[in-house]
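May I ask you to comment on the folded chain given beneath this request?
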Amino acid sequence: MKKELFKKIRKYHEFIKERSEMEDNSDLPIPELFDSNDEYAGLCVQAQDTQDDIDKLLIEFKDRLIDGLTPLEFKELDFFLKSSDLGFDQNIEQYQQFRFLIFKEEEKRNLKKVKRLRLLRNVDVRTSYLYNEAIRCYTNSAFNASCVLCRAIAENIIKVKSNEPYGKPRDLLKKIRNSKLTRLYSEIAKKANRILHHPNEKTKEEDALKAVVLLQDFISESTVVRALN
């Protein structure tokens, strides 16, 4: 744990040094530099991610002594213990600014991937609206919500196509008799079920993106299925 902590601290300093050099060599204010320079924005994101990792590791050390530290390590650890208290008395404004800029960068990166997720077939207004909400959750990094919403949208389509407002989705799919819809629903529901039944389930960006892509296919396939009478 100690080795991992100081490895992260060294990495953090490397990111900060590179970031500072770019700031010194630019006449732009930080927000403009962030928006116009992808390399700088990436460094900011990596530095903050590393800082978050350090804060998590410090929780393990904060209330107990660490034997065998060098004077430099004590100094490093003292700095990060103080900055991880989340008070940031003198730097709170800059910290908040960086967090906001990082959120903007993540949203911008996610939006680039969304372009290929537009529906290729005409669908009803309700489904189209809910699908766009699932995409919005994804672009705003609400990955859990995106996955769960994808399952809910698929289940609503199943009820419409089976002409059954109630019943278990898997039973209703047997009535529809479309193997592709059944397979796609199983994939969509798999991750959403884990999120709903396991509070500590971790959801990554790739999980949400996969759910939206699967839902896109599910919606497209459902448009060729006639609703049952």
Summary: The longest helix spans residues 38-61. The chain has ten helices and no strands.
